[in-house]
Amino acid sequence: MLKRWRQTVTFMDIVVWAIGGLIGVAIVYGTIQTLRAGEYSAEQWINLTIDGLKLGGIYALIALGYTVVYGILRMINFAHSEVFMSGPFTAVFLAMYLDKIDFYNAHPIISLFLVTLLSAAVSVAVALLLERVAYRRLRYAPRLVPLITAIGASFFLQYTFRGFYGNDIETYPNLDALKGIWTIGGIDIPRTDLVVIIAGFLMMLLLYGIVQLTKTGKAMRAVSEDKDVAALMGIDVDRIIVFTFGLGGASAGVAGVLYALLYSNVHFYMGFIPGLKAFTAAVLGGIGNVVGAWLGGTLLGVIETLGPSLFLSGLGIPAADQLKDGIAFTILVLILIFRPTGLLGERLSRTKA
Asked: pLDDT higher for 41 or 215?
């Protein structure tokens, strides 16, 4: 038994596990020291958690696009970050026009609906164009070929939208209806934050219901299991793949508007970092798993906002908040080391209703 273990475990495996273990020990030690110091009040921890939930909901919606495409085609669509960018970067001009004619704040619900609808429509259109032009002919190519194509498509879309709308950062008008706070259970929550959290959660429920409870969702799971057998059973594989890209695009478009509600500014490069974080969330939850996308996104958002204060403050690291991106990608590395399949580790075809 020991001899077999020595044959299967290399020296580099031991080094990697040791590094992962040291990182884990540092996290635990920093957390204990932070909690002992008592530098943060309960209200501050609650506010940080709320910030994490709103950010995690956005990551989860973007991650869904990575997850469903991987579940169907076994490829990582790295151009999905630009699908996320295209919707809100286009819809901002509608929002600015509605604000100019004094419609935006006079009818906030209708305005937000129109802006979200345009954002989702543009993201869906971009996702469908990607599938038709860039990926369809590469379905049976070696995996490295569509990966390189996706990276190239990402750069192409970035600079295409830069050519359309310019280099300048555009700003969404403020919605007066979302100013102020709501108090729930004695906790003060900014209205924008609560709307983003609820909207993100409801959108994830809707998308999960489509995948798990509809006839098209059943066809998606069948195509994910085996395209050839699904085609023999009468399923239009091309139509299902197109629907999958459209579903991911719609999710990204809605996420883009929620992101704009939080941060206001949009630009041609805005999708890069959220896209990487969403990919991390998809891997964290289990790439190809719809529930995993939601779980991974939520956990990543909470860890990213709580992490600098909880893990790093106790270690005496200055400017800990500036290391939140490092925490996110450290989590990715640890997951890949100790559980490469993610927390749930199930593919789309094997996700239970």
From this structure: 215
256-266 pLDDT tens trace = 999 999 898 99
Q: Evaluate if residue 185 carries a pLDDT over 70.
A: yes
Cβ neighbours around 101 below 10 Å, total:
8
- CA 166 to chain CA centroid, Å, is 26
**Region 178-202 average pLDDT:** 85
Prediction pTM value: 0.87
| Domains of the chain, start order | 2-350 (1.10.3470)
Residue 346 to residue 208: CA distance in whole angstroms: 15
Pick from 74-83, 91-100, 312-321: least confident = 312-321
